[in-house]
Each structure stands twice: as structure tokens, then as C-alpha cells.
Predict the structure.
Amino acid sequence: MAGKFEKPRSREDRSPAAAPAERRREATRSAPPRPAPERRQGQPQNLSRSRGENSLPPRRPRRQRRRKSVLPVAAAAGVLLLALVVCLSVFGKEKTPSSDQPEQMENQEETQPITVTARATIASQGDLLMHATIFGEKWDGNCYVGDGKYNFDSLFQYISPYTSKADFMVANLETTLGGDSFPYQGNPSFNCPDAILDSLKGAGYDMLLTANNHCYDTVMTGLKRTVEQVRKAEMTAVGTRLSSDEPRYAVVDVNGIQLGITCYTYTMVMDAGKPRLNNNSQVEQPELVNYFSTENLPAFYSELESVCQQMKQDGAQATIVYIHWGTEYEITENATQRAMAQKICDMGVDVIIGGHPHVVQPMDLLTSTTNPEHKTICIYSLGNAVSNQRIEEMNLKTGHTEDGVVFSVTFEEYSDGTVKVAEVDVLPTWVNKFTNANWKYEYNILPLDKEQQDQWITQFNLTQEQYTNACKSYDRTMEILTPGLTKCQTYLSQDGAEQPQTEATTEATQAA
């Protein structure tokens, strides 16, 4: 290793001076060859010389010749001894790195920094509650363009830059796509033209949640056709399925991270072992709908736990549960929601995202009671993405039904193979309804990006009154979400501080 070992000296540097050649030739001519005197191992090199000088008188020629013959032999022995010491020293040091190498490699593995290898942001939006005034011909809905055709692009024209930016975009399709064999209408039996899918796809949506209390509004025909049409539009439907052979979930690859996603809805009542959704008739094939009954939550927990295990077996590295629950128009979650969320957290689910109340409900950071190290991010309701639930139409006069949120969760995969929630954020939205230049009702989902608030009037063509209402919507939403959002972000920032900033992280952040 560099700097650990000194460079060995040359043999000339470490060898003693040889006897003069003249002296060696004289010793050879003066006496016949004699064996070198025997010396015990470890005997000092100059011991034989000192003994020779003390016991043999220098005046006797014979002894003088003998002394001359001993010196070159002793010198040669010294050279050999010194060479042996040097070799042992050098080769002994060369063995040191190999003996230390396993320990050094182990230490390097222990100190190897954990780096971010992939990032994926999943964004979710609330209820696409497709009332007839949005698209109905007799209601002068702007999405009806005449001659039996529809175009829903105006709904998403302002939100699409944000929804397209997400790596994976999800929304709750709270209507059916039953086709023209059923009337196109809103409440109480929702049925929307298929053209909504073209606009959703164009705005960057990737997955639609199809398990909700309106998914059976056009009975089994409409339930199955909805799944078929969503798939035909090259999006994923989760919550309902075409046959019991299909899984109740989807595992999607988002930037190399495998995410397991499932969706469940409550049922209003159970009738002879079959659910009734939205007071409709019994679901003909209940096995095609992911549902739960609050009257039998243990059965739901057992099924969901099995689904979570199946998702992991299919490669899911993190899990998200979307759930249709809660009390309509209540801006706080109820006790049943809290209890269910805790139970789902205990299963090891990473994120819970709720819907159905048609208003935004709080966020929270849950801690598993079975594994205190596990945390779950939960938002109890995303509110409405779009609807006609206006202040003037509702008994609830606070405006909360006009509000929604785009909730984003960023997952990170690390070099040790783990996947964790790294970031969460919210983008409040407000639905602006107005009469456009064609004297039709137009609905726009407005992204209330606080950093661009001074541009809202020009960006969205708002009147001063509309701008004021948008500001009120932002304040309502953030008042509900800020405590839980701060709690979640604080935890994630502290947990993330343990992971070093890496090149991959920096590039992903700059790209965003």
C-alpha cells in the first residue's frame, strides 16, 4: 500500500566491504584450504576474531597466516547473515498486507456509503365526480361540443403541467363508463362519455381508481366496461376487475422502483352476503369489486393483509392503499377511519390515501404498534378533483366541496436495496366554474401554486372575485393539511439526513 512500506535498499548499499583481492591471493598461496571454524548459531560475528588475537601470539608466522585465512571466511559469513536478516525483514513485511487484507476489505464494506439509485414520485388526486352540468347537452356543459361528441380538455388545461410532471399520476374515477346504452348523467347514477379518458391520458394520468360507491351505477355491464375502456386507453384500473383470476392489485414499475397499489371501497349495506353500493341492487359478482363492510372489518383486514403479501411476492418494494371511506362533507376523519388506518399501518403499508368525503381531510404520520420502526404516511381524504358541488348548490356553505389537493409521495431506492418514502408534498386545487364566451358552463381545475400566486389572475383569466375565492380555497386546504404535513415532512427530513446526498439525488432534484 502506498506510504506503508519503505523502498528496499540496493544490494550494494547493504553489503559489507569485501577483503582486498591482494590479501585473498596471499592467504591462498601461504596455506592449504582449511574448513571454516564451526560457530554456534547466534554467535557474534567478531567473536572468532577476538579469540584468535588473544590466544595466538602474533610473532609466530604460522599463526599469522592462519589469522589471514580466517578474516575472509568470517566476512563472507557476515554477508550471508546480513542478507538473511534483510530477506526475512523484507519478505516478512510483504506478508503483512495479505494477512490484513480480509479485515481491510471488511472495514471498507462496513463503511461503504449508501447511495440513492432511483427516485419515483407518485401524485394522487381526488374525486372526478362527473356531474351532468359538466358535460350534459341540456345543461349547457362546455364539455359537450355538439353532434353527440365530447371533449373534456378544458377541465385539465391548467392542472396538466403538474399532473404530467409526476412520474405516475392517479385519480379516483367516480363515475362509470357504461356507454350509450345507458343515459349520460350525473347523480344518482353516474355515467360519463368515454371521451373523458382521452383528456385524462393527455393530461398525464396513468391509473384510475374504479372501486367507489358509484362503480356499480350502471350495474355489472357498466362496471366491466369501465375497466375495459380504461385499459383500452392504456391506463391502469385498480379496485375492480373483469374476472376473479385477475389480482386485486397492480404492481407498477416507476423509474425502476416496484410499487404495489390496491384500492378498496366501503359498502353501504350487505344483503344476503352481497354488497349494495350507493343503494343500488346487489352486486351480481361481488368478487370483482374490492370492498369492505364496517360490520365485518376482521374479514377486510384478513383479505388486505393477504393482498399485501401477494404484492410483495410479485416484487413490490413499497405499498400504497387507496381507500374510499369516511363521512361525506366532514373536514375531519372519524374514529373508524383512524382505527382502520392504524390497522393498515400495522400491516406494513407505506402510504394510505383516502377519498369519498368530497372535502379535504387531514394528514398524519402513523407508527406501527407491531413494529415501532415502521411509519405510514396517511391522508384521510383528497377532496374533489372536479364536481358541481358549489357553495350555491350545497347545504354546506363553507366552500370545502370546491377544494381538492394533488398529493405527491416520492420514493427512493438505495444501493442496499431498500425503498423508503423520502418526500411528501401537497398542491391545493380549486374548481373554477364560470360561464364562458359560448355561454356554456366551464369548469377548470386550478393548481394553487403559492409561488405563482401573483400570476393567478392573468394565468387563469380570473376576475377579482374569482381570485379572492381561489385564495380562500388555498387557505382552507392548508389550514386542514399543514399540521400533518409538517409532521410528516419533519420526520422524513430527519430520517433522510441519515442518507448522504448523492449524485443521483442531485440530478433528480435538478431535473424536477
Q: What stands out?
A: The two ends are 43 Å apart (CA to CA). The longest strand covers residues 419-435.
